[in-house]
Amino acid sequence: MSDLNSTSNLKTVRAVIKGRVQGVFYRDWTVENAKELGLKGWVRNRRDGSVEALFSGSLEKVQEMEQRCRRGPPSAIVTGLDVVPCDDDPGSGFERKQTA
């Protein structure tokens, strides 16, 4: 039996998604999926052509979002996904931010 009721069940990660992920509705798709999963955080394009996102929520939901990000929307081609634990404040909802 796992301890899913402990406070350690909350997780915040920063993800960088690489590949053909700009100009293919990746950010809008990310906002839609993150809201569906009840996650907090944000998503934005980066000048190097990648997409960066911050996801915060239950361990299970964050892991599900990571899996979804590996696939992305239909017209995206994801070639890499780097995920690292993060302590940043995710805010109160999930939003699309300006390019970093």
From TrEMBL:
PROSITE patterns the record matches: ACYLPHOSPHATASE_2, ACYLPHOSPHATASE_3
Looking at the record, the residues that make up the Acylphosphatase-like domain are 12-98
**Enzymatic reactions:** an acyl phosphate + H2O = a carboxylate + phosphate + H(+)
Does the record bear Hydrolase in its keywords? yes
Q: Which InterPro entries match?
A: Acylphosphatase, Acylphosphatase-like_dom, Acylphosphatase-like_dom_sf, Acylphosphatase_CS
The alphabetized UniProt keywords are: Hydrolase
One Pfam assignment: Acylphosphatase
A Gene Ontology molecular function term for this protein is:
acylphosphatase activity
Q: What is its EC number?
A: 3.6.1.7
Question: Which SUPFAM superfamilies does the entry mention?
Answer: Acylphosphatase/BLUF domain-like
* Broad EC category: hydrolase
Spell out the family assignment given in the record's similarity comment.
Belongs to the acylphosphatase family.
Listed name of the protein = acylphosphatase
Native organism is Solanum tuberosum
The organism's lineage is: Eukaryota, Viridiplantae, Streptophyta, Embryophyta, Tracheophyta
